[in-house]
Hints:
By secondary structure, chain A is an alpha/beta fold. Chain A has helices at residues 45-53, 75-81, 98-106, 116-122, 124-128, 139-151, 169-176, 179-184, 196-202, 225-233; strands spanning 5-16, 19-30, 34-38, 63-65, 68-69, 83-86, 157-161, 188-192, 205-210, 213-219.
Amino acid sequence: xxxxxxxxxxxxxxxxxxxxxxxxxxxxxxxxxxxxxxxxxxxxxxxxxxxxxxxxxxxxxxxxxxxxxxxxxxxxxxxxxxxxxxxxxxxxxxxxxxxxxxxxxxxxxxxxxxxxxxxxxxxxxxxxxxxxxxxxxxxxxxxxxxxxxxxxxxxxxxxxxxxxxxxxxxxxxxxxxxxxxxxxxxxxxxxxxxxxxxxxxxxxxxxxxxxxxxxxxxxxxxxxxxxxxxxxxxx
Amino acid sequence: xxxxxxxxxxxxxxxxxxxxxxxxxxxxxxxxxxxxxxxxxxxxxxxxxxxxxxxxxxxxxxxxxxxxxxxxxxxxxxxxxxxxxxxxxxxxxxxxxxxxxxxxxxxxxxxxxxxxxxxxxxxxxxxxxxxxxxxxxxxxxxxxxxxxxxxxxxxxxxxxxxxxxxxxxxxxxxxxxxxxxxxxxxxxxxxxxxxxxxxxxxxxxxxxxxxxxxxxxxxxxxxxxxxxxxxxxxxxxxxxxxxxxxxxxxxxxxxxxxxxxxxxxxxxxxxxxxxxxxxxxxxxxxxxxxxxxxxxxxxxxxxxxxxxxxxxxxxxxxxxxxxxx
Amino acid sequence: xxxxxxxxxxxxxxxxxxxxxxxxxxxxxxxxxxxxxxxxxxxxxxxxxxxxxxxxxxxxxxxxxxxxxxxxxxxxxxxxxxxxxxxxxxxxxxxxxxxxxxxxxxxxxxxxxxxxxxxxxxxxxxxxxxxxxxxxxxxxxxxxxxxxxxxxxxxxxxxxxxxxxxxxxxxxxxxxxxxxxxxxxxxxxxxxxxxxxxxxxxxxxxxxxxxxxxxxxxxxxxxxxxxxxxxxxxxxxxxxxxxxxxxxxxxxxxxxxxxxxxxxxxxxxxxxxxxxxxxxxxxxxx
Lengths: 235, 325, 286
């Protein structure tokens, strides 16, 4: 790895109450990089995001941002630090309109190039539906709102959690079509994705989790498809 | 019978023998206090089943205490029944009233259910206050002749009522213990620990809540009848008193440990000790109880018994935490 | 004619009940919390106004300048210091804690002020009335009703037109995601409680000007407010006003039949609505 990572996880263990879900996970996201996070259901991918964001208890040194420990910060402080999330299942605010959802993170995030106009330019359909209730949109459009909501905070890092979940393949392509513009604006990303082929095409780095442990980690090109599949299923 | 069940049974029998023999060794005032202790123990065990296990936070149990009391007075004064015969009638009548309330109140969730039960109790109190033949707001008394049906001497009557209260207190505790260990009790435990999971393994939450509510109400009615058999006078204000029959009971259970059978016992003891200690300071004991209850809920959900359990586990495995930390 | 008069008075009484209910409805909307001590805080607000008036000689309505911010601060502190700790998947802790607060407030007021009934003197407005043919409308009940309407319009504006209103709704929808979007939900909950307490302060002063109060006047106010919320439909402030009006009319008509029947008539209407329209008259669409 040439440059210092923008976001790194060090020997992170976390879980829910008595149930431990992650065991000594290490991970480093390079500046302006895209890291693909793969693993079977229950491997700990969403748990890792929750731990990074402080939705689960973790310790100060376990998460660093540009080398600085941030593992002691509360969830609501992460956005100001420049870390935003596109949560699994989108989780739009149901009583807010499309535009109100977009404004939500913007008010508490950082100032920058991502504005309402730019998000509407990226996803023109959202401009048409700006005052509709968020729940009235199709799944793909809702996913665009969730992505736009994260962008509006002008983060340096976005955690994408299964943005293809429950969407038709053609819609998934539409959503992922926005990725080059997002990365082009200088944002680094960790993407959780079930479609290993897509991860191989898109990500520069790859981490595979199995039962809460990192079983594969490195530049995407270093692994064959068979190696990834083996790690994925933990054989 | 398992070893622990045997131990509990023997313990309860011992307690029952000690309390039942109290007329032989305790004075009249003490006997009244022990009787009152038993009535609160019974009310606390029942409310704990309702709120702590079935998740039904009722603040309207005074409706059933009052109904039971009025069944006694109507039965004896209006219908000329023997006082003791009215007790099973109180059980049935309050049970049916509870079933009727449940039809409406079970449409309300959580705290709204709580206030709904309160409105129901207020409504019943207003209805009784509005019936002139029952003395309206002033209430009515039990005629001396009718009470003589229990026993001829006043002393013996007091003993009988005391034994009834002991039977209700210890009997309710024993019955609750047996219930928790039975098959429907398992469903109640599952409901207490995790309603969603309980539903997913096939516990019929609605049904179990309904029957818990109805049976608790029916027994509460019997307790109400016996309490007012001792008082010999009833009025809507006394019989449907929120502070006496529900506030005190909630504090007892919360402080002792909600969702734990031992909690009701510990809480009742703490309640009576505090009340006796602070009896020269008016309502101060209620303020102290309120503050203690708030602190207990905020910092130790399991109440005093929860702390005891935690402490015992910790002292049995004293190095456990240090090694992990 | 007596019945027409009763209906008019009942509608106006509904304004007072809407004042009792609005704060309750608001915090339930934001954090699914039901404050069992709501009525007792209304009475606490009335006593705070009483003290303020005794110390400054202000008119009760001017005393609001002091009572509203003091109560709002108290609401913020109670939520931030105490009630936030009780919010979680288990519904019992907040109910039990606010229940404890209710008993503590009642008995502390009793020790401080005895059981004597009090009233705030507001001067000529108390008795002044407006004649509309055979019906006379008191200025005070009319003012109460207008204040309730203005307050509900104001709260609706806050909820649907401001950034803090968006934060209220977002936190109510999904607190975990709201935090990930940078919202300090503990602060938002405390702000909602502060707003509820500001409304409580206004309700307390109007209660104290219109009728006698004592340390135990709270529970009945909680019950009327609660009945207005359920009759109107959860989560809708306009529904809450409608619920207050239905309750007020029911009570006024009940009182026409027999003074002893006033309160019970309100309870009966509440149970009838619960039986035939369990979600209230105007449930929020979602």
